[in-house]
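Teaching assistant's notes for section 4

Start the section by putting this record on the projector. Ask students to predict, before seeing the second block, whether Cobalamin-binding protein will look compact or extended. Collect guesses on the board.
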Amino acid sequence: MSVTPKEIFDAVWKLQKKKAYDLVQQGLEEGVDPVAMLKEGVIAGLQEVGRRFGIGEYFLAELVMSGKVAEPCIELINPYLPPNAEGAQGRVVIGAVTGDLHTIGYGLVTTQLELNGFEVHKLGIDLPSMHFIEKAKEHKADIIGLSAFLVTTIPYCKEVVGYLEDMGLRDKYKVIIGGTECTADKADAMDVDGWALNAVASVPLCQHICGKPVDAAELARARTHDHTWWYNSRRIKGAAA
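Reveal the predicted structure now:
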């Protein structure tokens, strides 16, 4: 019997690296649809890891491990995909603002977004505000991601928004923030487009901002008291108030 995407899904969320890889390899040899193996197997498995992380069943170690499980599987599948089969979700530039030297947070966000079909450009740490805008132009980004782990770096997130407004580019790029000192309330006060509590939450946030489908329950939860991500309904077209 041929390998099924469900078997790959189970191996990914259970963090069985060798088994997941071997199943993908076997599936390719057997002619199993590579798109199904990617979307219903690997990507769905990552989403299950994210769900378990969200409810406290999995922790940071499992989240990091899931990326290590999925990456070789995706690399194995990619050459077999028809053009644009992976359906690019959107383009993101991301980095740490002026005065912020932390990499692990936005590094995890980068991994989660890439594994879910986003094109992500990591810009680095301790970056001047204009650098984000210049790179957004260069890479034709949809989203500018700002990481701020220190309370002293929060004003630089607002500075990026201010520069975009002054340059007449505010509606061209969506701005999202994250980091220890970032909250939904602060994001709202700065009038950015979104905030995510962690790397897993950044995926539905960016999907929603880019107009991609998001699970209805997940979208509804984004507006409740126990949310892990928030979107600016004043700025995101089609967003519920």
